[in-house]
TrEMBL record, chains A, B:
Keywords: Hydrolase. Coiled coil: none annotated. The keyword Manganese does not apply. It comes from the Bacteria. InterPro entries: FAA_hydro_N (IPR041072), Fumarylacetoacetase-like_C (IPR011234), Fumarylacetoacetase_C_sf (IPR036663). Residues 81-313 form the Fumarylacetoacetase-like C-terminal domain. This is Fumarylacetoacetate hydrolase family protein. The keyword Chloroplast does not apply. It comes from Devosia neptuniae. Residues 1-77 form the Fumarylacetoacetase N-terminal domain. SUPFAM superfamilies: FAH.
Length: 332, 332
């Protein structure tokens, strides 16, 4: 089942159910007006939403053509956004430029509490208050979950995964050091995260979802130039069930919590631009750090004003599974 | 105007308007079913809610007796909870046991992104997954705000303050160091924050609200023993407008964002137990650090299982302005 939230002028938008080919949609209003409402009562809502999708696919409901430009984030505002660091290669490249693996990082996943009060639409501009904040994208897989009790087991965590999508965890690299030196963690360096237009149930992803990981390449382009297409499943050290278990160590997690897997990262030696069959990077800072090691200095600039970033998970049919995130950088 | 949210079995509860003496309530359902709905459309909702309060006070509506035991947090789940460190004395006592003021701390307020997916009712138990996590309370003032644009001015920030209340930012001190050493900030050490039953408009607080600060003592008792009654206004270095401006440096803040002022703290030399007219502490770790300096070791234990913590802001009439937070520590 594929779900999306369309802009209807209200803060939470309008939940819609998509056809299997994602070409048409029907309002889910009779079942649940918003995705949060559906998540609050998932056992009731999911079969009814699924039935709507089946009717749409069978032509029993004609529906409307789906226009991703009208989509908001699946949850335009959420009660919780937790981002994990599940790809150790990313942490290593960002932290130390070393090839060695930090024992603590591999022991248990590091998480941070992100802001969730306004999650950006897939085509919303990236608004920066200053032009030189070393703006970076971070392509990630994210799951939207049902309620999870404190000290949940891996089985409970896996069973709570309701929907899968991708997101762009925008970072202002120039503000990261100051945030972290304060000791209280990310704050100013992490403005609103943006999400792809479509969220999909694990079952509907078929073989692409297994071991609580998304096994698809996530393609990242800046101004039409390929920056990376790393597979999100191949080097994800902690799976999503493990991230949820870690998040629930000292607290329950409410329905509608979104958990990110952190910047997708696969170890390799390339630098930008990558070859058409290369792996590349799902953020700029990794490319810069590889370039520093290789050439003595970073070549690839961070995002500039008017730059456009496109991110999409590519299915076996070559289609963008969740629809594309397509954002342009603008000055406030 | 005084508002509260009663438990009606739904995740967001039922918004109610209280009489001026907080003795009776009437459902706000005809205006807004939930506090978030009222905040989403405050310019429309506030006058209508205010009219309901006036009718209740005039006896035109009889209402029902208000039972604080039925109250949830004013926002039982919120889209954002940001906690600031506005009392430099607290940061100094916790960090360094020194009397000197850290220049960076005084330069701009430090904020952290807290979890807001399940904010605890005033009488909800404090559930700890282990008995020895060095559990502490932190009595704080919090404001609930309307939407604030990125780079808001102090005037915009002050005008966005919709409601004032108090909260208990529960901390598991034994987990703090690990959270902060990870570099990503507080996570496991900060389980669900609890809130007083009543949220009040700044105007209804009269002289107790001025300069964007709450000028009332906040009384903290553990098992009936007075731990502190520091005035929340006297030593609040950054006011709430300044905290909001800082939070909006790189992003807009959505309506329903809650901003905490951090643990209330007033410089003095006492240790526990305090005299009936003493100032004392709004958390245990400060008392322990003062005791370490004074006696060479901490005497006051952290919260134990079955301990009960009571927190209330005391008005000039001796009444608990927002109602009491009254929580008992239980093991998961």
């Amino acid at each position: 089942m594929n779900l999306a939230t369309l802009n209807n002028g209200r803060p939470d938008g309008q939940l819609v159910v998509l056809s299997q080919n994602r070409g048409r949609y029907v309002s889910a209003g009779r079942v649940a007006p918003t995705l949060q409402a559906a998540l609050d009562d998932w056992d009731m809502a999911a079969p009814a939403l699924s039935a709507l999708a089946a009717q749409l696919d069978a032509g029993q409901i004609s529906g409307q053509p789906f226009d991703a430009n009208r989509a908001l984030a699946p949850l335009p505002r959420a009660y919780q956004w937790i981002d994990g660091a599940a790809y150790l290669n990313h942490a290593e490249r960002v932290r130390a430029l070393k090839g060695t693996r930090d024992a603590d990082l591999a022991n248990r996943p590091v998480l941070y509490q992100g802001s969730s009060d306004s999650l950006s639409a897939p085509t919303a501009p990236i608004i920066t208050p200053e032009p030189d904040l070393a703006l970076d994208f971070e392509a990630e897989v994210a799951v939207i979950i049902g309620a999870v009790p404190m000290r949940a087991t891996l089985e409970q965590a896996a069973a709570a995964i309701r929907l899968v999508t991708i997101c762009n965890d925008i970072s202002m690299r120039r503000l990261v050091a100051n945030d972290l030196q304060n000791g209280f963690g990310f704050f100013h360096a992490k403005p609103a995260t943006s999400f792809a237009p479509i969220a999909t149930t694990p079952a509907a992803l078929g073989a692409a979802w297994r071991d609580n990981r998304l096994h698809l390449p996530v393609r990242c382009e800046v101004n039409g130039v390929l920056y990376g297409q790393p597979n999100a499943g191949s080097d994800m050290y902690f799976d999503f069930a493990a991230l949820i278990v870690e998040a629930a160590r000292t607290r329950a997690l409410a329905a509608g919590t979104i958990i990110g897997g952190g910047t997708i990262s696969v170890p390799h030696e390339e630098s930008l631009p990558i070859k058409p069959n290369g792996i590349g990077f799902a953020c700029i800072v990794e490319a810069r750090n590889v370039e520093k090691l290789k050439y003595g200095r970073a070549r690839t600039p961070f995002l500039q004003l008017d730059d456009t970033i496109r991110i999409g998970a590519i299915g076996s049919d070559g289609q963008s599974v969740f629809g594309d995130i397509l954002q342009t950088v603008v000055l406030l």
